[in-house]
């Protein structure tokens, strides 16, 4: 490896940033890596730049920088990502939750709160839960909500369960291994899904950081990217309460197709939401009759 990293926090941060010159945001990634592996904070870096970092932390930082330069996403290296203010552990079987998906949480929150207030509880089904991101964000915001997170991947469900425990939400979160609705029972006020929605043949064109590190099961939405929406639209009705909503994240070009799929299956449009980048990101649907 190149030169040794400095022991003092200020110079260490600068050197880490220099090593990451070729990545998208060297300053941010260097800070995340140094803080995580040295157990220091941003305030300490400013107030005490001469603070000495021990050798084992320096070695871990050097290794993390090598991985980052090699193309591994920074949150995969750290092993967690913040989502809706929650720290969620990642594993090779989970998608890294994205800020765009917070749009779905924001979109459903008023409905979840209203149902919880009126009925004393709100039951949520999170289809393809991954890290548990959507379900756990809604549970953390609404104490009277309970959620079932389903996924095909046992590894993803183990991570979601771990996250629920870490966040003190395990008592209200159930993980269920199921191929979409196959093993699901009961009725829900909210069915939420961020399903895989990339057309199979486009997966090869995704950024390396996505293609090489997010699991294919979390990305591949079939030939046209819409297969999971067809399944959800066809099967959701018998799992919905009379007063209920379905909320799905969509790819930014899929608004019309997904709308058509749900309307053809008998749902009414209940709202369309854009992400912070102004892209179509979430569609909400209502049942036509109880
Ligand atoms: C795009 S990821 C979303 C993960 C998480 N909900 C989020 O928003 O970060 C899609 C998830 O659906 C799961 N999945 C894919 N096919 C499935 C199927 N047939 N049945 C259940 N889950 C499936 C994947 O394992 C993955 O966790």
UniProtKB/TrEMBL annotation:
Q: Which UniProt keywords apply?
A: Methyltransferase, S-adenosyl-L-methionine, Transferase
- Where is S-adenosyl-L-methionine bound in this sequence? 128-132, 151, 180, 194
Q: Does the keyword Transport apply?
A: no
Which EC number(s) are documented for this chain?
A: 2.1.1.297
Which one Pfam family would you cite for this protein? Answer: MTS
Which of this chain's residues are annotated to bind substrate?
194-197
Limits of the Release factor glutamine methyltransferase N-terminal domain: 12-79
GO molecular function per UniProt:
nucleic acid binding; peptide chain release factor N(5)-glutamine methyltransferase activity
Q: Name one GO biological process term.
A: methylation
Methyltransferase small domain residues: 120-197
Catalytic activity field: L-glutaminyl-[peptide chain release factor] + S-adenosyl-L-methionine = N(5)-methyl-L-glutaminyl-[peptide chain release factor] + S-adenosyl-L-homocysteine + H(+)
Which Gene3D superfamilies does its entry note? DNA helicase RuvA subunit, C-terminal domain (1.10.8.10), Vaccinia Virus protein VP39 (3.40.50.150)
Family the UniProt entry places it in: Belongs to the protein N5-glutamine methyltransferase family. PrmC subfamily.
Q: What does this protein do, in the record's words?
A: Methylates the class 1 translation termination release factors RF1/PrfA and RF2/PrfB on the glutamine residue of the universally conserved GGQ motif.
Q: Which HAMAP family match?
A: RF_methyltr_PrmC
Q: Which PANTHER family match?
A: HEMK METHYLTRANSFERASE, MTRF1L RELEASE FACTOR GLUTAMINE METHYLTRANSFERASE
Protein name as it appears in the record: Release factor glutamine methyltransferase
